[in-house]
Amino acid sequence: MIEFRLPALGADMDEGTLLEWKVKPGDRVKRGQVIAVVDTAKAAIDVECWQDGIVHQLIAEPGQKLPVGALMATLLEEGEKVGAGETAPPPAATPTPPQATERRRISPAARKRAAELGLDPERISGSGPQGAVTLEDVEKAAAQKSVAAGAAPVAAATQSAPARSIEMRKTIAAAMSRSKREIPHYYVSEDIPLAQMLAWLQAQNAQRPLSERLLPAAVLLKAVARAVKDFPELNGHYLEDGYHPASAVHLGVAISLREGGLVAPALLDADRKPLTLLMQALADLVRRTRAGSLRSSELGAATITVTNLGDQGSQAVFGVITPPQVALVGFGRIAERPWAENGGLKALPVVTASLSADHRVSDGHRGALFLRQLADWLQRPEELAK
Amino acid sequence: MNPGELRNLVITTLQGIAPEVDGAKLRDDLPLRRQVDLDSMDWLNFLLGLNKALGVEIPEADYARLTTLAALLDYLQHKLKG
pTM of the prediction? Predict the structure, then answer.
């Protein structure tokens, strides 16, 4: 029997509300298949299965709030049989109340309202003292239930915009406070001339239809992914037992949301993707982040984050590291600036790249070498294209 | 396509990317990206949307000219005639 638990959804998302199951008992599922949609403070997330199997029992119920690691369902391995009388009953037939060891605390008003709405108070997660179910929890569960029943565009319907915005700010504040409390940050920066890179990009784009054009952002991301390969102390996770460098480069990309706030899902294996593919993956990631259809595997995965203020941004940005990562690269606006070289002065497009990194793992000297390496890569765009 | 229809189509395409845009409040003579928060990916998607709706190819070399809504409408009108 395989226990399917709510996977980690990144440092700043430690719980989620099940919105919808995409599978039912008896369904055959494949590794990587989306089997549930879970709402978090930041966005609705498509939760993927991490191995092949057959759905045995759906334990979590739509509307239920679950901490990361909570048992959501059981799956059978290929060929596995269940004992007599145990064959995958429909979930409704075997109610599994959340944390139901004793009767839930519930306010009289909440109990009355739950009865009016036809909700089982035992199944509503409580946010009051000692997990007590409040009137607000009942209303929330009712709203989520109707959303889940109506299914359709989940992301748009999950939480009201102001509620989402408040939750989002709280979530960001919690993760960033933790970062500043635990990570001794240091910062270095470097101005990088981009004349060659932009000329190369322009020549490339002149031959490409709109749908295949490259943005400078994609080239910057690729350069970071290639440069960090030589700096394992910047690419990995700092956990309770110390630092674990990562073998793959999964770039967390800070993506702002139109309604405010940001999410930093991972661009997986960014160092190995040819530029055209990386650009498509980036466009897809931005689109899905804003449409609210990110996948669980994209959320806890990032090994280093990049924040890019873009052409409407300011000159430089010094970011806050996302734990448990140990580094963040920031790019300001690409702009024409005076550039002194060989005793002469000229005007060139320049970007200021910064590195925020963790002193527990590296120091400013290595950070500076990394930025130099990044600058070198950006002078060889044709090599980044591969 | 008359100028009014073209403007409506451009606004609708823009709203597909920036739903908060109010076509009536948008000034045609001021830089578009000062009025609407569009990053480079949004801008690319906006042009891609216009390309799909109108069949007009927009070379990157022309981006610099397309600062205001008026300039963009003028540019598209020329392309459609040509």
Answer: 0.76
